[in-house]
Amino acid sequence: MLSANEFKHLSALKVKKYREETRLFMAEGIKQVDEGIKSRYHCDLIVFRSDARDDIKETLHIASKKGIRCEEVRAKELERLADTVHTQGVIGYFRMPQTHAVDTNSPVLVYLDRINDPGNLGTMIRTADWFGFRDILLSPGCVEVFNPKVVRASMGSVFRGSFHQEVEVDELAELQKAGYSVVTTELEGSELKKYKPAEKTIVVLSSESHGVLPELASLADGRVKIPGVKGAESLNVAVAAGIILHKLFETGTGK
Amino acid sequence: MLSANEFKHLSALKVKKYREETRLFMAEGIKQVDEGIKSRYHCDLIVFRSDARDDIKETLHIASKKGIRCEEVRAKELERLADTVHTQGVIGYFRMPQTHAVDTNSPVLVYLDRINDPGNLGTMIRTADWFGFRDILLSPGCVEVFNPKVVRASMGSVFRGSFHQEVEVDELAELQKAGYSVVTTELEGSELKKYKPAEKTIVVLSSESHGVLPELASLADGRVKIPGVKGAESLNVAVAAGIILHKLFETGTGK
């Protein structure tokens, strides 16, 4: 059973400041919890609604083998803990991993420039994971990786990435000096078709509403654009990211 | 001023059944209304909150030139009409266009297979528009194109497409007989890199949770897959759509 104090504590994890203080975060939904408990992340606790028990049989089985504490709660209680309205009836609580230095052997680093929509950020993490690009750098102004909505949209990919938050442009400049080529996506860039990625690439993905940060634009070694017809004003940033990352994958970078 | 009856009428447009009966729909947000009144769609009415007046000066100017009725409403009233919580303070009401036959001169037809998330559907319409693929066929089970969330996610692209809803597989079979090659996206497909589109293509985009409808899979002339590394289970359907449509655009189809 969860105590009243534990309830308060867990509910508070919906707030960024409290997540940062406690270094804990929540993952909501069957798929997310499953991925979490199979990952290198430490799971502190799983809470679930009794009517979800059948759907999460496998999850509870793995959890019990791993010695993860599981607590059944009433529907009303789960609702209070959940971030979504239509919850699947299960939430996992995980410890944030320690931040390591950027792996400079990695052929592709993904730099996310002020992505402030959690759905987009989660989808971009999921896409990068699909292509095997697991080193994700986030600029100041990005949503936090462990925001519940980001975790959910990542469909579990958040548990496989290596994240570096609040990375300033001068840190990119350092990585550039260490051999990385910085490429941005801009409307005035050269055709993606003709783009030949360098051996080590930092690919910058900027939100469609903000554009590329000026300091980043002047740092860039290359600029690419995704071709299109006249009329539509922009692509969704997560879609643009998918096209660029697929291109990097297809040309063999990162394999 | 809007009468109480008009309020009831406009509020009811948040409901699909009422939209279908009246053939009217709403577009919320500055960008969406702007695109709408510049399009071939007929705009019946614009409502706005007084504090939004500065932001939509240009919109109101165009509307007045076109003789579109504009009504200022109080914040509370707009909230009642709006579909979003944080509204930008302006909503346009438009008439649904008449449905024409599918344009069989079009080199690319996009067939959306049971896309039931409005955000994904809107994003896919936006992406197809970017690449100039304006003929969109929707299977039964897709969200409705004129759902307010779809309209919003499309960022105005809904006003440029030509939509055919509730298109059954046997209609695709007819189009196939008329010269179209049907290609699906499947995990067991051939590499996208090696895919050479036919002169006339129907590209089928299926949701990642449902997969390809069996009848569609057996109809297909070709299957492609988006390569990735092991681990991540799937791509978001709107991201996958972006990668496939970019490929079709890049190989010259549709240009």
Description:
Two copies of one chain form a homodimer. Helix content of chain A is 35%, strand content 22%. Chain A has helices at 4-12, 16-22, 30-38, 57-65, 75-81, 118-130, 148-153, 169-177, 214-219, 237-250; strands spanning 24-28, 43-49, 69-73, 90-95, 108-113, 135-138, 162-164, 181-191, 201-206, 222-225. Chain A is of the alpha/beta class and 255 residues long. The radius of gyration of chain A is 20 Å and the shape is elongated. Chain A has a six-stranded parallel sheet. A four-stranded mixed sheet of chain A has the order 1-4-2-3. Chain A has two domains: 4-95, 60s Ribosomal Protein L30, Chain: A; 108-250, 3-Layer(aba) Sandwich (Alpha/beta knot), CATH 3.40.1280. The A-B interface holds A 119, 123, 126-127, 129-132, 155-157, 160, 192-193, 226-229, 231-236, 238-243, 246, 249-250 and B 119, 123, 126-127, 129-132, 155-157, 160, 192-193, 226-229, 231-236, 238-243, 246, 249-250.
